[in-house]
Amino acid sequence: MSSFRPAPLTGIRVLDLTRVLAGPWCTQNLADLGAEVIKIERPGSGDDTRGWGPPYVKDAQGQDTTEAAYYASANRNKYSVAVDISSQKGADLVRELAKQSDILVENFKVGGLAKYGLDYESIKAINPRLIYCSITGFGQNGPYASRPGYDFMIQGMGGLMSITGERDDLPGGGPQKAGVAVADLMTGMYSTVGILAALHERGRSGLGQHIDMALLDCQVAMLANQNQNFFTSGVAPQRAGNAHQNLVPYQVFAAADGHLIVAVGNDGQFRAYCGVIGRPELAEDARFKTNSNRVINRDLLVPMLVDVMKTQARDHWLEQLERVGVPAGPINTIDQVYENPQVKAREMLRHLPHKSAGTAPVGASPLRFSGSPVQYRHAAPLLGEHTEQVLRERLGLSEDEIRNLTR
């Protein structure tokens, strides 16, 4: 008999009116934590990302299904209900589900749900305990509130692209976006945190509240130490390629047969690093002995290190640096990531039941609980896969009523 307890959010119901990535990433987190997440989708087309392929999830014979990999990445463990909220009956059904829900997450444009009676004030009137999270590009107020917001433009507008990419004075310099939609993903994570905090607060007050999440806010907030560098110095940080603004050496180096990352985080590690590369005198040089001096004298030190690192193979450096406790690692392609023994040991790839594919691969949640683990119930659903089930079990509709609605 299992000693595990139910997942942390078991018994919590989430009404998911989101699409694309920021909102679905948030609600997938909640689903992984055990919440029942009912995803409302447009009949016929569903979430926009259902069409964002190829690639598509493959069936047991290796043939493409109709399910885009992009959609599958952010919608596991959810129930899909196809309802036209622009119709009176459809909006009524969603309101009935909202009455029974603990959390509602939506990413319609500001004011876009009011005409259907699905805005916060309307839903609050029928369910004052509901936690209602709105995710938009720019938030519910301010001069940009009515504008659409997409991750790429937010990465640019929010400053990330000004510090991402090679230095402007080097070949290939210029603004560069991140390889995944980090503004969307971070907004989904911040939204998850906000919802869980509001859920805890509701335990004291008995009341829900409106959470106003903006991609731009989250992008600006996640600049982290770069924000503080600017606040402290008055100088806007610039692109530094694979180098670090505040640590040296902390960058990519070319070895004789490839590349590796060396991430020296303190002066002790620098001394150990200098010993490995056969240049112990550098660690005693006043220009390089402390990190602050290394940052100041970066342009003197780094070229010397570059020359030394080219003299040995990548794996030689990795083995030697690991031996003395200097953080270093390879630059893996994604297929190499999933062959990594640590990634395998942490079970970061799972295979879940899927109605048309049989099973589908998914990237696992990084959350690990000793007593109430993350749940992996099923892969991302087909469009409307659970419509009849939810209408029957949650709203008590009869088979005749469901047939009439379908018709």
TrEMBL record:
Record has Transferase as a keyword: yes
Record flagged with keyword Lipoprotein: no
GO molecular function term, any single one: CoA-transferase activity
Alphabetical list of Gene3D superfamilies matching this protein: Crotonobetainyl-coa:carnitine coa-transferase, domain 1, formyl-coa transferase, domain 3
UniProt KW keywords: Transferase
A Pfam family: CoA_transf_3
Alphabetical list of InterPro entries matching this protein: CoA-transferase_III_domain, CoA-Trfase_fam_III, CoA-Trfase_III_dom3_sf, CoA-Trfase_III_dom_1_sf
Name listed for the protein in its UniProt record: CoA transferase
